[in-house]
Task: inverse folding
């Protein structure tokens, strides 16, 4: 299915958010996810089903002031 | 200084953005004795830039104060805070809700609402706010135990635009930790803030964009210590006219 990952269109086969993260191959474990604007805790990623057109945000630590 | 039941020795908090290199950032933190650094969450890239930065942060040993920089609504800030708590493993959050694009002035209405939500959820909220006393009262009523008034717009380096307002905040909130956040440009600005009785200073660009960030980090720490000592010592009152400091009694008659 086609979803948006950090505003980039991506084709994924995994059914859950956890599957999608594996598939997308982000390095590092310090990641937080939001689906369609709502925070999805790490513990819920395996039970969160994705659907066509979902907007996934994958955030990581970054320099800030 | 004690904030949210944590004792801090250093009264300098540093932002982590815009340094020439991670090594210079790490060295600036080290030489300044800074114990709290603020960091953001941004979209992770395919090459894992966030993962690399996380390693740099961990090596500093500093306490992490995640921020919600760039959020323009309370709802965005609350969601970002939830994500930051998971990534950084801390309930501390520097709450920014920006209300004005040019000045990056806080949206104090969204700020108070977001603070109320996050405090109720157990976050230790550090609100980036204006120097408005009424907003400060509402933030404390929402559950905040520290206030972070601006000195001048973020990244402007203008120094304290309204020292009288900060003096009023000190008088109005005698028992609340006050951290001047944003607008500091030079060590004298940081020193002035501390002389007004604020408890600490948070700055970023003034160090990161200095010709020598490491030397500037040390200068800021020294200025903050000097300003605090000046506040503790109790400065003299200003006078309108000169008053001779050398005794007049015993002055030789040489005319």
Result:
């Amino acid at each position: 299915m086609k979803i948006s990952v950090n505003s980039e269109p991506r084709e994924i086969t995994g059914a859950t958010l956890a599957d999608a993260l594996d598939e997308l191959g982000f390095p590092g474990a310090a990641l937080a996810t939001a689906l369609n604007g709502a925070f999805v805790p790490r513990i819920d990623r395996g039970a969160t089903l994705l659907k066509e057109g979902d907007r996934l945000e994958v955030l990581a630590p970054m320099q800030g002031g | 200084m004690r904030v949210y039941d944590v004792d801090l020795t250093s009264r300098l908090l540093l932002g982590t953005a815009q340094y020439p290199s991670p090594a210079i950032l790490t060295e600036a933190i080290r030489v300044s004795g800074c114990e709290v650094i603020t960091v953001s969450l941004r979209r992770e890239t395919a090459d894992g830039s966030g993962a690399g930065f996380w390693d740099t942060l961990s090596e500093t040993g500093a306490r992490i104060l995640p921020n919600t920089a760039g959020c323009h609504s309370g709802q965005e800030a609350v969601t970002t805070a939830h994500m930051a708590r998971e990534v950084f493993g801390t309930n501390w959050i520097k709450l920014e809700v920006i209300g004005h694009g040019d000045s990056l002035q806080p949206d104090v209405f969204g700020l108070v609402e977001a603070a109320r939500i996050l405090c109720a959820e157990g976050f230790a909220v550090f609100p980036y706010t204006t120097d408005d006393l009424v907003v400060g009262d509402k933030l404390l009523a929402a559950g905040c135990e520290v206030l972070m008034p601006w000195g001048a717009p973020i990244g402007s380096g203008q120094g304290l635009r309204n020292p009288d307002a900060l003096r009023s905040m000190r008088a109005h909130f005698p028992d609340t930790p006050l951290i001047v956040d944003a607008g500091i440009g030079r060590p004298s600005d940081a020193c002035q803030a501390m002389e007004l009785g604020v408890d600490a200073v948070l700055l970023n660009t003034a160090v990161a964009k200095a010709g020598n960030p490491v030397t500037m980090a040390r200068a800021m720490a020294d200025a903050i210590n000097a300003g605090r000592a000046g506040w503790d010592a109790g400065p003299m009152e200003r006078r309108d006219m000169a008053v001779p400091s050398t005794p007049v009694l015993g002055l030789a008659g040489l005319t």
User: Anything to note?
Assistant: The longest strand of chain B covers residues 36-43. Chain B is about 40% helix and 15% strand. The two ends of chain B are 57 Å apart (CA to CA). Chain B has a mean pLDDT of 95.
